[in-house]
Write a structure and sequence with these properties.
33 strands; alpha+beta
Length: 751
């Protein structure tokens, strides 16, 4: 019955007052479901609950429930069929295994529960990663080169007049534009694919591409003694229009340094393979352009842009690009062409320039007082430019990692503690601020400084992850791990490579995606759905495949790597071919064998990494097997009754653990009561070696005497053992060993 205000109901009773409305705002909770990815390590699987605990890269734990519709797969390479693991997925959930789970968060009791819909395993076995197979990246680069070759040239001979910058997701051409940098970058990809596979059509396409680039997009200014490269050409057959200055908004009506730099990336990679002296002339005369016009003689470094008329980096016509320097104008010289030019020639002038660039970066780019990220844009006097265009006070995550990666390369040739220190600082700082520690992968552009009360770094535009940013992370951590044995760098490199190989492949159409969402699902809108554009042209994914093989095979897993060369007749100084794949730690690699035209060939210097090519005026196809030098490791065992005394000497790592595992298996067959490890002469131990011991302890008799003792380890070894077994429940770290003393009497070393 409706009641009017101020009146009494028919029964004459005064109605009760309605309760007062609360003025408190309701508590906001995420009371909705959402799908997301979690990446991490299995801690425990509960068969009764049919769930497991996953620990993220930064140590947070989630309970993941499985359902009768949960599926599982193993990461597969481009060109490979789907690998289903649903039937065995529960048996694969062993502690320490890294994986990705995609599922649904459901609100429940004021929190969320998580149910998995798809598990993705980076390897078939517990601690395996498919990307560490010796031929993983070789197969991948072949598939990518085949995609771009067919997209641009079909099944016939390479005709670069048919080349176009734009390629849609399926590989169909878009537009009538040809750009110097995109042609050059594809030449890099095709050259690298030949370098790794020996596929002749890739070499032919690269060589004809350089000819086209030199004929149509190069300008040799003999009066100035320099070479510069056009931005692009517009084709309207039978004519073409050359475009000198950039037409992109950031660089409009200017000559940006990065375009001149990347004009050399493809030809220089090809130069390593065929030794064409004309390419070297182009490299040197373009460097003359950098030194004469881009270089700032007063404060050092290189202008980001030149006026296309006056070639003046301080011209008023440049507007916001006047008298500016940035990461691209300074640092990109190193990976794009300088390192490869030095590898091909050994010429000190290239190394001197590398060191000059590295010193400039080390001196001016760190900004520890203000940000965990380096500063990337500068005025002419190196004061910080915090107002330029889109960048403002923002960081490109990949540029930070690119610095770390390249400083380590230069350090291997010209050692400098400052290079290693900066690289290590970047590598240890970046995960918190630039990576996704819940889903895996690395972000794009973020604010360099967190706002007041901000607990998380803010994204500039989105939280998507670009393919090229993943490359920088993978290579930065792989080279650090391979050069120093840093276990944390090895872990981060593996996680980054696992994310890339799990989510970036387009299995239906070929090649890799430009961007994925934070959860790994491909982002396919706008130009980011394309496989060819001003930004994507067969460089970063090819460079990753090439150098990840170098760092993984030759430095970490200690596997050989084959490289193909085809020098032009009579062009190499002293007929000497330099074959080192990258600037690696001195003495870490050597030549294992050489074939010329498929036949064994013996005229090479294994340690100098040079091959003396036949002086017979003929062009030959040369395969060089580069092999890692194995760090010494020795293990000896003596029995005292049922106690096994094992002495370990040298380095126990990925390349030697199999010998250790074989010895341990032999020892376990005799059912020892204890393993006593004499470690005073063991230089280092990798986690894989510790896992051999933990697995051995699992299989030993459970008794007071069935234990493993690590005796007198060096500090680094002791620290690694404590991290793997912090409570020392499986491995007792002690200074000395006395037979048959109870572990409680021995006590534990303080952590």
């Amino acid at each position: 019955m409706a009641v009017k205000a101020g009146s009494k109901p028919a029964d004459g009773k005064t109605p009760a007052k309605a309760p007062a409305k609360s003025t408190a705002k309701p508590k906001r909770v995420m009371a909705f479901s959402f799908a997301d990815t979690i990446a991490g390590y299995v801690k425990d699987y509960d068969r009764n609950a049919d769930s497991f605990i996953i620990e993220t890269s930064d140590g947070r734990e989630f309970t993941v429930a499985l359902t009768d519709t949960t599926g599982a797969q193993i990461v597969r390479n481009l060109g490979e069929p789907y690998v289903d693991a649903t039937a065995q997925m529960r048996d694969m959930l062993v502690p320490g295994r890294y994986l990705f789970t995609y599922g649904i968060f459901y609100p429940q009791a004021g929190e969320h529960v998580y149910e998995a819909k798809m598990l993705t395993f980076p390897g078939a076995r517990a601690h395996d990663f498919v990307h560490e197979k010796p031929d993983w990246w070789v197969k991948q680069i072949y598939q990518m080169a085949d995609f771009y070759y067919r997209s641009q040239f079909g099944d016939g001979e390479p005709n670069w007049r048919e080349y176009r910058v734009g390629l849609d997701m399926t590989g169909n051409k878009v537009g009538d534009r040809q750009e110097t940098d995109t042609i050059s970058r594809l030449i890099y990809g095709l050259s690298s694919a030949y370098h790794m596979t020996g596929e002749e059509r890739f070499l032919k396409a690269a060589e004809t591409g350089v000819e086209y680039l030199r004929e149509h997009l190069r300008n040799v200014d003999s009066s100035e003694g320099v070479t510069y490269w056009y931005h692009a050409i517009e084709i309207n057959e039978p004519s073409e229009k050359k475009i000198l200055a950039s037409e992109f908004g950031d660089d409009y009506q200017a000559i940006p340094a990065y375009e001149q730099i990347y004009a050399l990336v493809g030809p220089t990679q090809l130069f390593r393979i065929n030794g064409d002296p004309r390419i070297k002339e182009d490299i040197d005369s373009t460097i003359s352009l950098f030194e004469r016009f881009f270089y700032d003689p007063e404060y050092g470094g290189y202008w980001s842009h030149l006026d296309p008329i006056s070639f003046d980096g301080k011209s008023d016509a440049l507007g916001r690009n006047r008298a500016r320097k940035n990461w691209n104008s300074v640092g990109d010289h190193v990976p794009a062409y300088l390192i490869n030019a030095w590898l091909a020639t050994g010429d000190d002038k290239y190394m001197d320039m590398l060191v000059s660039v590295a010193d400039t970066i080390e001196q001016h780019f760190p900004d520890d007082a203000n940000s965990p990220f380096v500063q990337e844009r500068f005025h002419e006097d190196w004061s910080h430019d915090l107002t330029w265009g889109w960048q403002q006070n923002r960081a490109v995550v990949g540029h930070n990692l690119k610095i770390a990666w390249n400083l380590m390369r230069i350090h291997h040739a010209r050692p400098h503690s400052n290079y290693v220190a900066l690289a290590n600082k970047i590598n240890t700082t970046m995960p918190e601020f630039g990576s996704d520690q819940q889903r895996g992968g690395w972000y794009d552009v973020v604010d360099r400084v967190r706002g007041k009360d901000h607990e998380a770094t803010r994204f500039t535009w989105h939280d998507r992850k670009a393919w090229w940013q993943q490359e920088q992370a993978i290579l930065a951590y792989q080279i650090m791990a391979g050069s120093t044995g840093d276990e944390e760098a090895l872990r981060l490199g593996r996680e980054a490579a696992a994310f890339y190989n799990a989510f970036f492949f387009d299995y239906e159409e070929g090649s890799v995606y430009f961007n994925v969402l934070a959860n790994g699902i491909p982002y396919l809108l706008g130009t980011e759905r394309q496989k060819g554009s001003h930004s994507m042209a067969g460089y970063h994914s090819f460079e990753l495949a090439f150098l990840s093989t170098v760092y993984s095979n030759l430095l970490t897993t200690k596997e050989p790597m084959d490289l193909w060369f085809s020098p032009l007749p009579g062009v190499l100084p002293n007929n000497t071919l330099r074959v080192s794949p990258d600037i690696l730690p001195p003495g870490s690699i050597r030549i294992g064998e050489v074939e010329v035209d498929g036949k064994p060939y013996a005229d090479f210097d294994a340690d100098e990494l040079t091959v003396h090519v036949p002086d017979d005026k003929a062009r030959h196809k040369i395969r060089v097997r580069v092999v890692p030098t194995i760090d010494p490791f020795e293990v000896r065992t003596e029995f005292d009754g049922d106690v096994a005394h094992m002495t370990l000497i040298g380095k126990l790592d990925m390349s030697t653990f199999d010998r250790f595992q074989t010895e341990v298996e032999s020892v376990l067959a005799r059912k020892p009561s204890r393993l006593v490890l004499n470690l005073k002469d063991l230089d280092s131990i990798a986690n894989v070696g510790i896992r051999v011991l933990l697995f051995a302890r699992q299989r030993m008799d459970i008794s007071d005497r069935a234990d493993i003792y690590a005796v007198a380890p060096r500090p680094a070894v002791a620290d690694a053992l404590r991290k793997a077994d912090p409570e020392q429940e499986d491995i007792n770290v002690v200074e000395s060993y006395e037979p048959f003393v109870d572990r409680d009497k021995l006590g534990k070393r303080p952590s």
